Every structure is written in C-alpha cells, then in structure tokens.
C-alpha cells in the first residue's frame, strides 16, 4: 500500500467470500453486536474513524430493530466511500447515522459526536507511523465515554505492532475484553474498555496516513 492507495478499490475483497477482509469484517461485526447486546435499552453513541464504506457498523445496524438507539458519526475522506456509506444508510433507514467527509486524524472532527460509547478504529493503525499509533491510543481516552469501548484492528505482519498497542491501551486505562488473532490470517481485532475517567478533548492531530 502506498499513500496513493485507492481506498475505494481497497473495499472490493469485502465482496469475495472467504477473503481475509471479509473474515475480518465478520469478526468486527460480531464485536459490534456483542457491544450492543451488552448495553440493552441504552441510548448509545458511536464514532468510526476512517470509516471507509462503513460496512461494519451499517451492516450490523441494518439487521437490528433497535438501531434507532444508536447515534453515530462516520469520518471518511474519500468521497466515493462517503457516497457508498450514505446510500447504504439511506437504504437501511438509519436516521441516527451520519457520514462526515472529514479528516479523522484531526481531533476537531470529533466535536459534537463524542464522548463515544463505541469508538471504531478499523484499518487505521496499520496505515500510520508507530508514533502516530501511540498518539492515537493516547487520544482514545479523550474520545471515549466512561466505560466506552474501542474496537480496533491491526495487521500482525512483521514488524507486529500489536503487542505494543495492547501495552499502550493498558497504560491508558483500557482493559482488554478480547484480542483475536486468527492463526490462519494476519489481521487482528482488539476490543478494549475504558476503566478510568475520560480525559477532556484537546486539539491537534492524532495521525496522518502514510501507507
Ligand atoms: C483501510 S481503510 C478502512 C476502512 C474501514 N474502516 C474498514 O475497516 O472497512 C482506510 C480508510 O480510511 C480513509 N482515510 C484515510 N485517511 C483518512 C483521514 N485522515 N480521515 C478520514 N479517513 C481517512 C480511506 O479513504 C479509507 O477508506
């Protein structure tokens, strides 16, 4: 992948049954479902950074009759992916879900949408420098609500940053609910919950895509 990656085309393997990306999506969607089921009846907020076409969250909510209790903001820069997500949201009648064509690396893009009961960080940490990954994990504590959950993904291709990411999350007061690293794939999915008080949101950048 390069900084010139075509992020619309990147989504194509989602439509290939058995592809690693389709497998990863199934894991992320299962954890979104578990999160919803763990908080029955509550009004919940969600933010998805670098949401792409939003297949994870939209794909879950469109199948649920309690989708209206979720208010969500998807942040995505590629206009084609924004259009796909918006069309999918409209088809599914998800009135509480918005897509902003905005820079998810800029903390200002989260104003009005946080604190998040669920922060989705799928397909981000593998596309930024290690330093930006660390900065992002620090910022999670400002983006999440009390007891907020983060679902994140990261390739484990060498050099595998996931041990460091998990350590940083622990340092920031997140407990690990699960970390899935299928032996037959290189992706991994982590689910962490904030156990300490959130920090006030600051201004500035979390990350810039480099891959
Ligand atoms: C690897 S894809 C992941 C998409 C989605 N989260 C998923 O897992 O299906 C990364 C996405 O981030 C978007 N992106 C890249 N830099 C961004 C930024 N600074 N702010 C928002 N979106 C960005 C790309 O257009 C692309 O759709």
From TrEMBL:
It comes from the Bacteria. This is Methyltransferase. It comes from Catenuloplanes indicus. The lineage of its organism: Bacteria, Bacillati, Actinomycetota, Actinomycetes, Micromonosporales.
């Amino acid at each position: 992948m390069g900084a010139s990656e075509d992020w619309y085309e990147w989504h194509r393997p989602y439509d290939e049954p058995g592809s690693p990306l389709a497998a990863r999506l199934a894991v992320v969607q299962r954890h979104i479902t578990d999160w919803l089921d763990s908080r029955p009846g509550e009004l919940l907020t969600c933010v998805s950074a670098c949401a792409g076409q939003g297949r994870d969250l939209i794909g879950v909510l469109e199948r649920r009759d309690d989708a209206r209790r979720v208010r969500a903001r998807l942040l995505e820069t590629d206009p084609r992916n924004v259009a796909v997500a918006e069309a999918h949201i409209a088809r599914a009648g998800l009135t509480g879900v918005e897509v902003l064509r905005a820079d998810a690396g800029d903390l200002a893009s989260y104003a009005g949408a946080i604190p998040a009961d669920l922060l989705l960080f799928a397909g981000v940490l593998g596309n930024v420098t290690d330093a930006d990954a660390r900065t992002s994990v620090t910022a999670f504590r400002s983006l999440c609500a009390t007891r907020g959950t983060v679902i994140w993904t990261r390739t484990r291709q060498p050099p595998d940053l996931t041990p460091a990411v998990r350590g940083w999350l622990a340092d920031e007061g997140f407990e690990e609910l699960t970390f899935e690293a299928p032996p037959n794939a290189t992706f991994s999915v982590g689910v962490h919950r904030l156990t300490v008080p959130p920090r006030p949101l600051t201004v500035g950048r979390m990350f810039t895509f480099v891959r």
